[in-house]
Amino acid sequence: MFFEAGTGGTSGSSYNPYIHTANDTLANMGNSAVNSAKFARLGLAFLGEAAKTSGGGGGNAAPVANFTSTTTGLTASFTDTSTDSDGTIAARSWNFGDGTTSTLANPSRTYAASGTYTVTLTATDNGGASNSVSKTVTVGSSGVQTYTNLTDVPITDNATVNSPIVVSGRTGNAPAATPVAVNIVHTYKGDLKVDLVAPDGSVYVLHNRTGGSADNIVQTFSVNLSTEVRNGTWNLRVNDNAGGDVGYINSWSITF
Fold this sequence. Notes:
The protein is mainly β. It has 1 helix and 16 strands.
C-alpha cells in the first residue's frame, strides 16, 4: 500500500479516509493539525508493517547438536559436529555420564572404570538458542588381561559340558594369536574333543581325540580370534565320546 495526500477541494469518489490502495487517494485533510497527526500515525504504522514483511521478525533458529567419539582403553575422545543454520556455535556443555563435565569444543575423558556411559552435549548458538543430544560410549580396560574360570565341571561318559567365561568392558577384536590355557583332568584324553566357542557361536577346535590312553590335557593353545569381538560369553566345550573313563574341567583361561 501507499499514501497520497489530497490536493484540496472535495473528492468526487468514495474513499477510505485513512487506508488507501494504489488506486486510492487520501480525502481532503486541509490544514487541520488533528488530521495531520492522524496521517503521521498512519505512516508510522505502515512502516512497522513493512518492517515485519521484510523479515525483521524472523527469529533465531536453534542449532542441531551432534558429536562423534573414539575410544582407546579407558579414554574416550569427543569431536563436536554441531551445526547452526543461521549463525555459529558459541558455547558447548558436555556431561560425560560419570559426574564430570567440560565446556571444550573437542574434549577427552579418561574414565575410572570400564563400562558404558551416556554422554550428553548441549550446543548453544550466538543467538542464545540451544539443543542437546545424548549418545552412549563404551570404554574398556587397557592392556592385556587374563580371564579365568576355576570352577570344576564334571565330565561324564558320552556327555558334552561347557565352562563359560564372560568378558565385558573391552573394545575391539581379540588378537590373531590368543592364548587359551586348558587344564582338564581325565583318565583317557583320547576320548575327548575340546572346542573354544566364541560369543557369536563360532567354534575353534583345540583338541580332537588325540593322545590315546594318556591322562589329562594340560596345554596352552594359540588361537586366531582376530574376527571375534572380545566382549561376550566364551565357552570351553568338552565332549566325551566313549565310556569307561571320566574326569573334569579343572580350569581354563583366555588372555587378550
